[in-house]
Amino acid sequence: MLAGYFDAWYPIMLRTWPRLTVFEGYAGPGEHTKGEEGSPIIALRRLLDRPELVNLGKEVRFVFVEKRADRLEHLRELVAEKFPDLPSHVAVDFVPGSCEEVWKDALASSGVWGCPIFANLDPFGPGVPYELVERLGRNKASEVLVTFPSDWLRRFASVEEIDDGDRQFGSSDWREVINLDDPQHKELFLVAAYRETLARAGLGLSAPFRLSDEGGHSFYLIFATGHRLGLERMKESMWKIDPARGIQFRDTTDANQGVLDFGKLDPDLSALERRLKDRLIEAAPNALTVEELRDFALFETGFRPPHATRAVRTMLAVGELSRDPEKGQLSGKIRICLG
Known about the structure:
Elements: H1 2-14, E1 19-24, H2 39-48, H3 51-54, E2 59-66, H4 69-82, E3 90-96, H5 99-110, E4 117-121, H6 130-138, E5 143-149, H7 150-157, H8 162-169, H9 183-200, E6 205-212, E7 218-225, H10 228-240, E8 248-251, E9 259-260, H11 270-283, E10 288-289, H12 290-300, H13 305-317, E11 321-324, E12 335-338
Helix pairs in contact: 1-2, 1-10, 7-9, 11-13, 12-13
């Protein structure tokens, strides 16, 4: 997912801005237990393996923060081993300490404010400071990817970590979760509340996904940006990945938690069709344009605008929807209503 995102992000940003930053708030050792490359190495490789991007000569800075000294040293050694000849305009900062305590000095001393930052915030539990995402939201063209472990959300939902919650959500409003009984409802409430938190921080466009395996282990990913193109890039990347066997991605914007067929050329769009019909019912008696339905898919579901176009075509073909005019190219100017 990250590889696909960087493949789209680097070319656009490097041709637009004089410099970029990749910030890893919880960098880890750079590789997983079976030798798979971690996100810091992926971020470096997707840039350095493309000479046409490196040769632009634009400054790119990587800021890797890690609390454990042994992991940070392993990451430093790994970067030196895999990328021994870094170009002069590509810099890597290895910052010891917890993200919650050092992020402000780490970013200030690196001189990265004022140009786009992609921040990967992947803690093992609570702790991503609202102050950090709010500062990123005020920075030009910045985007974040935040990870919520599901088991943490369940503990969080019992209000055992009030201070951590207030720090992450930037307020105490999230504490209303205590009034919910069902654990899944608690999780979804907190995910929705955090999307509102990100919007308040200036990152108003977000896409939340739930990853789960056959053993019931799961975590949530929330990508957030202030720009439509950023959201489109991340969703394109998500839909291109081929999930590992036994892993499912679910749409957390859907109360029914529909499975998303990432990696499939012909995904099941029945969940999207249901969501689009619900949206048309809400709008009745007014009709909606195809472009409005495409925007709904992008902003309010786990699907992409092209999926909405395909779903509308299918529902028109079976008579579930009607259109005005009845003939001609299906475009944003066509009005759609229930059949």
